[in-house]
Amino acid sequence: MSPHLDKCARPGFDSSRRGASVPGDLTSDQKEVLLRWRLCLGRRADGVGALGVSLGGLGMNVASGTLSMPAWGLDGRALLDLDAAMEFIYGEEERSASLGGSNPYLPPELPVWLANLRRFFTKDVVAVVQRDAIERKGLQQLLFEPETLPYLEKNVELVTTLLAAKDMIPSKAKAMAREVVAEIVERLMEELRNEVRQVLLGALTRSRHSPLPVYRNIDWKRTIRSGLKNYDPEAARIIPERVYFWGNQKRFHEWRVILAVDQSGSMGTSVVYSSVMAAIFASLPVLETNLIFFDTEVVDMTDRLTDPVDVIFGAQLGGGTDIAKAVTYASGLVTEPERTIFILISDLFEGGVAERLLAKLSELKESKVQVVCLLALTDGGAPAFDRGLAGTLRGLDIPAFACTPRKLVDVMGRILKGVPFDDLATPEAKG
Fold first, then answer.
1. DSSP letters along 35-51, please?
2. Among 87, 107, 139, where does a domain finish?
3. Are 91 and 105 in contact (CB under 8 A)?
């Protein structure tokens, strides 16, 4: 968006002239200030109230768009398009939001409207307006038409919205919806995969030759070569001074990581990011990865981790919450507590018995499982969560904090290296 569109008005407009309706009465600067206010207030400001000046009153010929705003990089027609795009979503509530009809302010096609949004605004602003279109105006067409889906701003919020509405998406649009989600997920995987591999594998990499006496890791060539000087002809044997071991032999499932993800309605973004992160973890041979979703029931998604899109569409947002039940299920997956990381991803609004939840988490903690609670796994926004329960967890020495995907990678890396991560686990900062 042009930097000139970030404010509705500037100093310098003489409010005593606010009733003016003849363009000749206003300087170009005054017209710009008035135009800013007009675009902010919408068409309901036309000819009424304090301004009393429409776009036409400013010299804007609705048919030809003769008034331009060069400082904004917009000609008259572009200003009309901008006004129409905003009026469509933020205009008077009583105006119908449906397409078509005789209302001259409605855009003829949703794809055209979406294209105009991208024309005038940056991606983050487009995402906000797009969300408002769905929430304020109920524009299900944005989600339900295969012709429209490709034009939407592709981000995690869109995946969350599609996931929440998945049961309402008509058959004709399901394939396209899945393609859109797959595109977003693949982009996230590309952004995070290398960093995850570098940090986690780096945390587990020992020196090339390790003194650990693991038979399968013996470096026979180096051991024999170094022992040749100690060859005993009578016994016809080599007596090595030292046995060398490979540190970089392929290692499988050195650690288990269990992610238990709350799929209540407020946790949609966390579900998406958790699915992506779990799929990446599962691709690393050194990690045995389990992913479970829960509400009042527990669904084990581990066998789907090769297809994170399938995992995401397998989630069912909404419903009640029984966190204790999920923790109990996760406890049954633990085989080597000292080499297990349990990550509970939940806002902690427990619908079950909180005492039972605390007891199960304490059991895991006492068994030497590394227990972490993420109040949200997201890239933005301050999460809502049960502050009392979060504080109780911290009192049990269980970190409870909101987290970005990249911070989760750092936390995992430190756990694998046996390094404290207290500085990363601030209660409410995601960093």
1. HHHHHHH-GGGTTSTTT
2. 139
3. yes
